[in-house]
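[agent] plan:
  1. take the single chain provided in the ticket
  2. run structure prediction with default settings
  3. attach C-alpha cells to the ticket
  4. add a short note for the reviewer (M.T.)
[agent] executing step 1
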Amino acid sequence: MKEFYERPLNDYDLVGLFIDGKYFRKHQVLIAMGLTSEGKKVVLGCVEVGSESQEATKGLLEDLLDRGLQIHQGLLCVVDGAKGLHAAIKEVFGGFVQVQRCCWHKRENVVAHMSKEDKLVYRARLQKAYHIPDYRDAKAELLSIKDDLEASNQLKAMKSLEEGIEETLTIQRLAIAKELGQSLRTSNCIENLNSTLGRLTRNVCSWKNSAQVHRWMALALMYAEPKLQTIPNHQHLLKLREALIKARTRLPNPKIPFSPQPRFH
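[agent] step 2 finished; step 3 output follows
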C-alpha cells in the first residue's frame, strides 16, 4: 500500500488523465489513470468516495499534485458527467486543464429519456455527430439534433444534450479528434482497467471496511498496470501537447494551483 499510494509522479510526462468510479458492493472507489506523451497508461491513485464526492475527488487530485504530478503544460481530463468531479477538477487544476466529457455517457443520458423507437434513431445520430472531426461541423450537427428534440417536445432529452455540450467537443476544439478520437472521445480506456479489477476481485465475497478495499485496490492496480496497452495512434500525442499549451495560454489569468516549475519542455 505504501509503495502504491506514495510513489512519486514527477517522472511521468502526462498529457491525459482519466478518472472513473467503480463499486465494490457498498464501497465506491474513484480511480485516476494517467496517459503519458508516449501513449502509455499509468495508474496514479484511488480514493474511496461517499456522498461528498467533490471533497473526496479534490483530496485525490491534491494528493497527485503533492506527489509531483506535472500539469503546467496542460492536461486533458476525460471524465463522465458527474458534477462533483467536474467541480473538483476545475478547483484544483484551474486553467491548466481541458475537460473532455465522455460521449458514450452523454449519448446514453440523452436517449434515456426517449421511447424505444426514438432511442435507435437518436443514438445513431449522436454517435455520428461525435465522430465528426471538425469542431464547427460536429457542433452544428448536435445543435440540429437539439432543435429536433425541442420540436418533438422531448425537452428532458434536449436539456440533457444541452448540458455540457462544449465539453463533449473538446477534442474537436483541440483539433485532435481525427487522430486520437478513438481513445480520447470516451472513458473506455479506464473502464477497461475497471473490468480487469472486477476480474481480479470477483472472488471476494465480503467487503468489510475501507482498509480492506484500499489493500485490494493497491494490489490489483499494481498487478494490472504493466498489462495496460499503449493507445492507438500514440505518435500523435505530441500534437495534443501542443494544443493543450495553446489552450492554456489563451485563458485569461489562469489559476496556478502550485508553484513548482514544469519539468518537461
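[agent] step 4 note for reviewer: The longest helix spans residues 135-151.
[agent] ticket updated
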